[in-house]
Amino acid sequence: MINPIELIKQGLRKRFVQPWQYRGKGGYDAGRYWRERFVKYGFSMQGVGLEGHTHAENLQIREKSAQILAKVCGAEFKDFSSVRVLEIGCGNGYYSNILEQWGARDYTGLDITDILFAELKRKFPAFRFVQGDISEKPLPDKYDLIIMMDVIQHIVDKAKLDAAMRNVKNAMKSGGLFIILPVTGKSYKHMFHVHQWSRDDIQETFADCRIESESARLNEYILKIRKP
Ligand SMILES: C[S@@+](CC[C@H](N)C(=O)[O-])C[C@H]1O[C@@H](n2cnc3c(N)ncnc32)[C@H](O)[C@@H]1O
Question: Which of 28, 34, 146 to mutate to test the pocket of ligand 1 (most atoms within 8 A of CB)?
Answer without folding.
Answer: 34
